[in-house]
Amino acid sequence: MPLALAEKSCTPCRGGVPPLTQEEAANYSRQAPDWELLDGAKRIERTYRFKNFREAFGIVERVAALAEGEGHHPEIRFGWGYTTISLQTKKIKGLHENDFIMAAKLDRNAAESDRVTGRIFLATANPEAAKGRHAEHIGRLKSPVD
Fold it and tell me: 3-class SS at 65?
């Protein structure tokens, strides 16, 4: 049985590697079903809703810590009550397995937090920083700036 995406680590991506095809991206998305394939399967995105601006900003810090640890950095947009995370491998102008690894890790952390506390927050290297942060996941929410 293949290793689950959330158990893998991102690997450095060199230019010249072809991006995933739409079919390959659709296959990977089965392990990250809450992420939407966008732009002809060239990026994936997910939005979370929060009670306030502070909590939306808090998730940005936790996602940044995970991104630094994996060496794979998403685009993050946030404002009052929402944070949207978008993944794409810029060097190849499309999707790579790394994008789905990050998505699966974010999903796993959110699900584990929700199961334990009834709340969703993304785990980081510093779980103490996440305590008291409450979020409600809602598949895809249009942000006020879209």
Answer: helix
CB 49 within 8 A of CB 123: no
For the whole prediction, is pTM greater than 0.85?
A: no
Other Cβ atoms closer than 10 A to 20: 22
Are the beta carbons of 98 and 72 closer than 8 angstroms?
yes
Q: Domain 34-137 maps to which CATH number in 3.30.1360.20, 3.30.1360.120, 3.30.1330.40, 3.40.50.300?
A: 3.30.1360.20
Listed by start position, the domains of the chain span: 34-137
Q: What is the pLDDT of residues 78-90, one digit of tens each?
A: 999 888 999 999 9
Q: How far apart are CA 72 and CA 69, in angstroms?
A: 8
Which amino acid, 85? I
pLDDT single digits (tens) 117-132: 444 444 333 334 333 3
Tell me how crowded residue 100 is: count the other CB atoms within 10 A of its CB. Answer: 26
